[in-house]
């Protein structure tokens, strides 16, 4: 039988993950979880030693100002506290994915970057050179997309590696589909 | 250890394949082969029993008229002969992929449809419901794309399943990158 790259290095899959946009729910977004579960169930399957997962969470500094509406900055320390809070949220998010991988026996790495999600993801793809990038997508219609932007569309166009976009299933979509 | 969908059905990956556009070379295009090899090496790896490959070749009837420039149609039989020739070409193409799968031990199916490639692929995705569609792409710049169209971009936007586009590597690109 011909070789199927059995002896080659593991397949490295980067997954872009973000926090839920639902207020007061500091966990992974529905579309991030969909992207992760799809990768496990459809690609990795039982071949846990053939893959390595790379989780990238991009924190958007002051995304829309809402988070800072009730914040009062009176000293440099206040800014440091805010930054620390952001960082803690990021690692909390990554902990979920890393723990799941650990339970299943899939090698992984996870890290947080700050900046514009789509730009940072493409930059990290260039740096880390994964075999595949998996990103979630809310599956919004064109009208809704105008307002929320689509990181996934940008990545498909600009990232220097194969990219697959995983939409949430219909039953996972919240009442307001812009929520995630 | 948690389950990773080990017991679930196989992952069904559809691969859109086409003939080389290089005149007098009736074999699979470079980008089709790239898409296929990527799927084997990066996704299926050693887990040959976990996947089923579905090869779809869409024959474009009279794509640009060039094929018919030297043909003379004098009777209904001439048209039947031309159609039979098209069909033979299509099955010859699929034979390459099916043989490779057979050698490796990956279950597969392959079929030919006629029509507009992008429309037919999306239609077949709707009908067959694969877990993933893999399509090749010549990796042309925006200027060149205007003239040759991109089936892959259409599929990414419109097909009802996750889609991944595999570009040819730089060393596989022929002298004229529009050739494939």
The SS-based structural class of chain A is: alpha/beta
- How many domains in all of chain A? 1
Helix segment tally of chain A: 5
Note the run of SSEs of chain A as H and E: EHEHEHEHHE
CATH architecture annotation name of chain A: 3-Layer(aba) Sandwich
Notes on the protein architecture:
Two copies of one chain form a homodimer. With 180 residues, chain A is α/β, with parallel strands linked by helices. Chain A has five helices and five strands; from the N terminus they run E-H-E-H-E-H-E-H-H-E. Chain A has helices at residues 30-44, 76-104, 117-128, 142-148, 151-158, and strands spanning 11-17, 51-59, 107-114, 132-137, 163-167. Chain A has a five-stranded parallel beta sheet with strand order 3-2-1-4-5, sandwiched between helices. In chain A, helix 1 links the parallel strand 1 and strand 2. In chain A, helix 3 packs parallel to helix 5. The radius of gyration of chain A is 17 Å and the shape is globular. Chain A starts with 10 loop residues before the first strand and ends in a 13-residue tail after the last strand. Chains A and B meet through helix 1, helix 2 and strand 5 of A and helix 1, helix 2 and strand 5 of B. Chains A, B: It comes from Lactuca saligna (Willowleaf lettuce). Chains A, B: One of its GO terms (molecular function) is AMP binding. Chains A, B: Residues 29-167 form the UspA domain. Chains A, B: Pfam families: Usp.
């Amino acid at each position: 039988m011909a070789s199927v790259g059995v002896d080659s290095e593991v397949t490295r899959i980067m997954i872009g993950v973000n926090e839920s946009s639902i207020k007061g729910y500091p966990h992974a977004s529905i579309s991030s979880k969909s992207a992760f579960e799809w990768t496990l169930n459809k690609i990795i399957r039982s071949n846990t030693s053939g893959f390595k997962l790379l989780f990238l969470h991009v924190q958007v500094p002051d995304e829309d100002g809402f988070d800072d509406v009730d914040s009062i900055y009176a000293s440099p320390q206040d800014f440091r506290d805010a930054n620390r809070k952001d960082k803690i949220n990021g690692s909390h998010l990554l902990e979920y994915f890393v723990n799941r991988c650990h339970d299943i026996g899939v090698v992984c790495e996870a890290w947080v970057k700050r900046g514009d999600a789509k730009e940072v993801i493409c930059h990290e793809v260039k740096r880390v050179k994964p075999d595949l990038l998996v990103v979630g997508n809310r599956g919004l219609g064109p009208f809704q997309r105008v307002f929320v932007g689509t990181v996934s569309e940008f990545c498909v166009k600009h990232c220097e590696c194969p990219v697959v976009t995983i939409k949430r299933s219909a039953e996972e979509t919240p009442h307001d589909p812009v929520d995630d």
